[in-house]
Automatic annotation (TrEMBL):
One of its GO terms (molecular function) is acyltransferase activity, acyl groups converted into alkyl on transfer. Belongs to the citrate synthase family. It comes from Rozella allomycis (strain CSF55). The active site is at 292, 338, 393. Keywords: Acyltransferase, Transferase. This is Citrate synthase. InterPro entries: Citrate_synth-like_lrg_a-sub, Citrate_synth-like_sm_a-sub, Citrate_synthase, Citrate_synthase_AS, Citrate_synthase_euk, Citrate_synthase_sf. GO terms for biological process: carbohydrate metabolic process; citrate metabolic process; tricarboxylic acid cycle.
Length: 456
């Protein structure tokens, strides 16, 4: 039944039947995809035999750092400058993407549109997408039951992964594949799943939050609200400044090119043609690691302990001592360092600007600012970290706690809701470009020794 209705839409694609209404996201994508398929064909024909770089033994042992072996169309990370979403920096996105009436921050719907199509949507198109997601936001009863059965002691990220996997029953991609579809149509089913999943995530995430930390009750999706405003309402936070913060938060955490753990895990699992629910759940399992997304909860925990230890208005010396204790205990300073970035993360900077505007006198913000001046010097003196500067996670917790969202264990779920926009856009493109199953070659230490004839 569902597959038939999708096929009907597919039958109309690309035709000028829109009348006076603006093109929808899918219609826009229908125009963009064939052009990009042609460009990829041309690039492969022309440059297919060229080398992108060498792979050294150290790179293979070192988490594949710097190996250029993935194609990911939606964003690109420059070590010095930070992320660009389809060529646009964060300040450019803040300036050019539509915001909510009376608001200033970009609406994540607009960012999703940009990531997917490379085009900036109009306000009207973003409104259409908000309405579309509100209409798609239906969570099956068994998923509610499964979330309700999770013990409160189960980490919210684990609950998110469980719920997303459970929601796989709704996958139109899996159903269509089972029925037998042409490869050319894969992206369209991935598109439907991605949009359904993104639409449902605020409900699922809010239910987890309300179950673990509140009374377990959540409201309903309001078709007049945008995605972020609906999410905030479901969580129980309706302060307009908090809603603006979430629009910014959900936009900037969305995508960070393709090699980070959550993006790569999603693409890797998706390459086996596991559907978008299963693929995204894999990405979320990766995001739940403390060196990746979970760092945001670790940062606030670490900073609050620091505050408790050094008291209000601490001297730089006292803070330095605390940082050295962390390092000497063999732990990392959460929120600092990055596998690719070599400067302060622009996602940190835009959150700092938000804080300077809305909470300049907050004690914890002042402490975070003081850390910004101290930690990089200590890490440099420590001499191990390649990048001593703060990353996105160094700042998000202080903003959330200011508006009353103090449950640190929930922070990575917020990151995950946002990350869906990027990694699912990437997944749709992988299906549109017909990427094959991933299968890089692995080696054993023995085989390396043999190769370089170091064997005694
Ligand atoms: C993000 C991170 C995982 C990148 O790892 P990476 O690419 O291996 O980083 P580097 O190459 O700079 O690591 C070199 C060494 O410095 C250490 N290092 C890196 N960042 C550090 C930090 N913030 N505090 C202490 N030590 C750090 C590494 O643990 C590594 O030590 P080792 O040689 O004993 O294994 C790392 O910087 C980190 O653990 N940061 C803290 C956690 C965090 O904020 N994660 C969120 C990232 S967005």
């Amino acid at each position: 039944m569902f597959a038939t209705s999708i096929r009907r839409t597919i039958g109309h694609r690309g035709r000028a039947f829109y009348g006076t209404r603006p093109k929808s996201l899918k219609e826009t994508l229908c125009d963009v995809i064939p052009k990009q398929q042609e460009r990829v064909k041309m690039v492969r024909a022309e440059y297919g035999e060229k080398t992108l770089g060498n792979v050294t033994v150290d790179m293979a042992y070192g988490g594949m750092r710097g190996i250029k072996g993935l194609i990911y169309e939606t964003s690109l990370l420059d070590p010095e400058e930070g992320i660009r979403f389809r060529g646009l920096t964060i300040p450019q996105c803040q300036e050019r993407l539509p915001s909510a009436p009376g608001g200033e921050e970009p609406l994540p719907e607009g960012l999703f549109w940009l990531l997917l199509t490379g085009e900036i949507p109009t306000k009207e198109q973003v409104k259409m997408l908000s309405e579309d997601w509100a209409a798609r936001a239906k969570v099956p009863i068994h998923v509610w039951d499964i979330i309700d059965r999770c013990p409160n002691t189960m980490h919210p990220m684990t609950q998110l992964c469980v719920a997303v996997n459970a929601m796989q029953t709704e996958s139109s991609f899996a159903r269509a594949y089972h029925e037998g579809i042409s490869k050319n149509l894969y992206w369209e089913y991935a598109f439907e799943d991605a949009n359904d999943l993104i639409a449902r995530l605020p409900l699922v995430a809010a239910k987890i939050y309300r179950n673990v930390f509140k009374d377990g009750k959540i409201g309903e999706i309001d078709s007049k609200l945008d995605w972020s405003a609906n999410f905030c309402k479901l969580l129980g936070f309706e302060h307009p400044e908090f809603v603006e913060l979430m629009r910014l938060y959900l936009s900037i955490h969305s995508d960070h090119e393709g090699g980070n753990v959550s993006a790569h895990a999603t693409q890797l699992v998706g390459s086996a043609l596991s559907d978008p629910y299963l693929s995204f759940a894999a990405g979320m399992n990766g995001l739940a690691g403390p060196l990746h997304g979970l760092a945001n909860q670790e940062v606030l925990r670490w900073t609050l302990k620091l505050q408790e230890d050094v008291g209000d208005n601490p001297s730089d010396e006292k803070i330095k001592e605390y940082i050295w204790n962390t390092l000497n205990n063999g732990q990392v300073v959460p929120g600092f360092g990055h596998a690719v970035l070599r400067k302060t993360d622009p996602r940190y900077i835009c959150q700092r600007e938000f804080a300077l505007k809305h909470l300049p006198n907050d004690k914890l913000f002042k402490l975070v600012s003081q850390l910004y001046n101290i930690v990089p010097n200590v890490l440099t003196e420590h001499g191990k970290t390649k990048n001593p500067w703060p990353n996105v996670d160094a700042h998000s917790g202080v903003l959330l706690q200011y508006y009353g969202l103090k449950e640190q264990d929930f922070y990575t779920v917020l990151f995950g809701v946002s990350r869906s926009l990027g990694v699912l856009s990437g997944l749709i493109w992988n299906r549109a470009l017909g990427f094959p199953i991933e299968r890089p070659k692995s080696l054993t230490t023995e085989s390396i020794i043999e190769k370089f004839q170091l064997k005694k």
